[in-house]
Amino acid sequence: MIGFIGTGLMGSRMAGRLIDAGNELVVYNRTRTKAEPLIIKGARWANSPKQVGAQTDIVFTMLADPQAVDAVAYGEDGLLNGLKPGSLWVDSSTISPTQSIRLAKAAQEKEIRFLDAPVAGSTGPAEKGELVFFVGGSEKALEEARPLLEIMGKAVHYKGTNGAGAAMKLVNNLMLGQTVAAFSEALAFGESLGLDKAGIIRSLFAGPTAAPILHFKADKFMNEDFAHADFKVNSIYKDMELASEEAYTHGFALPLSNAVKAMYGLCQQQGKGTHDFATLYDFLKKK
C-alpha cells in the first residue's frame, strides 16, 4: 500500500498517475475536497498523516511550503508517529537542504528511511508523467522507490546524500525564476521599440537563448492569460527566498537572483501572488 499526502495542483496529478498504473493508495490532505477526485478513482482516505503512515510501507509527500511539511511530519498525529520501522518516506516538496537533513535525522531516529525527491516540472508534466526527480538519500532506498518515481516522471537524477536533492531543486528554480524574468524583460523591451510581440517571440525561439520553459509559456505571453497559473508567483518567490536563505548560511551571494526575487515580490504586492509567475511580463511592460 502506498501513501500520498498533499493532493493540491501537483500532488493530485502525481497520485493520479500512481492509481492509473494500478497501485492502491491511501491519501490525506488538509482540505479533503481536494482529494475527492482521487477517492472517486479508488484511493482510500485517512484522517491524519499518522493514519497514512500506519497503513503503508512507502509514503510520498508533496506539500506547499516548509511549514506544511513540518506540520505533517511532527506532532501526535504526524507522519513520523505513524510510519513503521523500515518504512520509506519520499518527500517531493520544495524545502531547504537544511530542513531535509533535519527531517532525515528525525526519521532515522525512528528507523524510518527518508529521501528528498523534489521535482522539476509543473502541472502539465505532472499529468503526463514527465517530471524530473532530484533525489538525495540512500541509493538502496532510491532503487526501491524508483519504479514509482518512473510512473510519475521521465527522469530520476541521484544527487547524493540527504539534502542534495533539495539543494538541486533550489538551483533549478533559481534559474527558472531568472529565465522567465529575462524573457519577460526582453519581450517587453522589444515591444517598447515598436516590434510585434508574436514576431519577437518567433525570433527569440529561433535563436539559442530560449529555454524549454519559455516554449511552454508561449501562449501565456501571447494571450496574457496569467490568472490561470501553472506555477504561481507565490511559489517561485518562496523558492527563491529559500535559495537566498540557504545561500546566506553558506556565505554565498546571489546578486542576480535577489533582484529577480524582489520583482516577484512586487507582483505579490500588486495582488498577483496566485497568478502564473510569467505575469512578471505584465509587470514590466510599458503601459
UniProtKB/TrEMBL annotation:
Q: Which UniProt keywords apply?
A: NAD, Oxidoreductase
SUPFAM superfamilies (alphabetical): 6-phosphogluconate dehydrogenase C-terminal domain-like, NAD(P)-binding Rossmann-fold domains
User: Which PANTHER family does the record associate with it?
Assistant: CYTOKINE-LIKE NUCLEAR FACTOR N-PAC, OXIDOREDUCTASE GLYR1-RELATED
Q: Outline the extent of the 3-hydroxyisobutyrate dehydrogenase-like NAD-binding domain.
A: 163-282
Q: Which Gene3D superfamilies match?
A: N-(1-d-carboxylethyl)-l-norvaline Dehydrogenase, domain 2, NAD(P)-binding Rossmann-like Domain
Is Oxidoreductase included in the keywords of this UniProt record? yes
Q: What is this protein called?
A: NAD(P)-dependent oxidoreductase
**Similarity field:** Belongs to the HIBADH-related family.
Looking up Pfam families in the UniProt record yields: NAD_binding_11, NAD_binding_2
The chain positions of domain 6-phosphogluconate dehydrogenase NADP-binding read 2-158
Organism (species): Sporolactobacillus mangiferae
Q: Which InterPro entries match?
A: 6-PGluconate_DH-like_C_sf, 6PGD_dom2, 6PGDH_NADP-bd, HIBADH-like_NADP-bd, HIBADH-related, HIBADH-related_NP60_sf, NAD(P)-bd_dom_sf
